[in-house]
Amino acid sequence: MSASDPAAGSRDIPAAAAPAGPQAAPAQPVRLANFGLEVPSPESRKLADWIVDSANNGNLPFMIIDKVQARVFMFDAQGQLRGADAALLGLAIGDHSVPGIGERKLSSILPAERTTPAGRFVASLDRDIHGHEVLWVDYDTALSLHRVVKGQPKERRAERLASSSPLDNRISFGCINVPVKFYETVVSPSFTGTNGIVYILPETRSAREVFGSYDVQDASRNQASAGVAPVAGSSVR
After folding, report:
1. Is residue 169 part of a domain?
2. pLDDT tens digits, 41-92
3. Contacts for 37-46 with beta carbons within 8 Å, 24 or more apart?
4. What is the CATH number of the domain that holds 43?
5. Tens of pLDDT along 88-105?
6. Which structural domain range is residue 196 located in?
7. The total number of structural domains that make up the chain
8. What's the predicted TM-score (pTM) here?
């Protein structure tokens, strides 16, 4: 075949590719909390995932208190679990504190007023009136997390903490009691030299109502099914 043969040149010059249509950017992976070997309730897992995905903790260590399960989860700022244990909580079911309760004597607080309120709190270590270190969750309402106290013998606080059931863990005036070892090896080191965020899950309302949270996995699936890649500032990152 001669060099002037049109067919010769056609083999050397590739055909122009058809213009590509709009291509969605590859979806970015969601960021999830790491519970390790712990098996949390669905509510605790969803809240932890939202905290990590949205960076709601502001790059601070954070704690989740699951009142229904009477369980405390301590995470570092990146959402890696540092430890988990049982907790004693307020005697009464409820997600609000009675106004002015932080200024009242314990003896004046009625059983129905002994709630552990739900919400997001900026917490820090400090001393109580007896000079003991505690994690102050909300100073105005005198809400703290501390080592389990003996209380009255009939309260059997240590036995309640050791029980495998969360049903007998409602006994305090509202404060969160945790095992001594957990406080000293997990809580105190996590908050030493820094503030942190404490999230107390509600028991009479939804987490969405209290925190404005979303289900990270659902948001990711919805965006994937719609063929929409997350953009900067979106809920799935």
Report:
1. yes
2. 999 999 999 999 999 999 999 999 999 999 999 999 999 999 999 999 999 9
3. 38/73, 38/81, 38/84, 40/66, 40/69, 40/71, 40/73, 40/84, 41/66, 41/68, 41/69, 41/71, 43/68, 43/201, 43/207, 44/69, 44/71, 44/73, 44/201, 46/207, 46/213, 46/215, 46/216
4. 2.40.440.10
5. 999 999 999 999 999 899
6. 29-213
7. 1
8. 0.82
